[in-house]
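quick one, 326 residues, struct below
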Amino acid sequence: MTALSEAYPFSSVAGIHVPVMLREVLDFMAACDPKRILDCCFGGGGHSRALLERTSAHVVAVDRDPQAKERALEFETKYGNRFEFHSMNYSGIDRLSGGGFDGILYDLGISSFHVDEGERGFSFRQDAPVDMRMDPTTGQSAAEFLEGAPYDDLVAAVREYGEEQNWKRVVQALMSARGTGRLSRTVSLAQVIEDAIPGRVKRQNRGIHPATKTFQGIRMWVNQELEHLAVSLPKAFSMLNEGGRLMVISFHSLEDRIVKRMFREWAGQPVDANDSRSVQDRVAQARLITRKPCVPADDEIQINSRSRSARLRVLERLPRERKGAA
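---
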């Protein structure tokens, strides 16, 4: 495995985004000798930068965040025609031209820029409007969702997406706070959520803010992250060249479940314990490079604590069947 210091040669440079599980991504990508790579979640550009520096590949990057487009300008200047950026949601990657890819990477969730730049409303560390949209030019903000969403949608966001065990208390608190203005700012919203969590639970989880899971769930709902992922992955697989590798870094169990099921489907394996299809009914179009998800090593977690929940799965495309073959 690549040494950590070699994988992160630019980690000490001010303003440079440190990507999650870069060492593993570089190692897995190198094995397929990529000529053309698609970075579906450009974000801060950390993975794209390393792939451009460590390979000779042409890198195509997409992101729906308008600020990502601004960060990509430096890449276009530095790497010239080896890099191209497209402002789009990764659910629309089938609109890209230029042929297939030898490597396709998803780094799901939010980047450190979203957390550190408080005005976007992703974090409760700084007081800001509750927006949370990846693309603030489209759709409704998180504050609008919280003020007007049906009860069932709030439950889905908090219980399913946020995986908050005390979801009933939190949802009721959010409903009760409507019209008070407390749902419009990150700090006051976080306080509404914290007040709804029982004291014993807060004492048991002192290292994690009580609003963390609910903020995550609201963000995922507002941005329709799971829905876009489910649409995008099959498109990515269809764009993968023979021998090419599809890599997904996820941070949430529901994201990882979608990836796991699709990867197993394409590898001709049962997607879950209830999959009773015969071997003849399953077609292997790919092979699993990672039987179980890779997790960050201890030395990475020490320099980047945000990586601790990351999970990486890798799939390799098998040769397509040739029509007319004997």
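The beta strands are 36-39, 58-63, 83-87, 101-107, 240-250, 286-288, 311-317.
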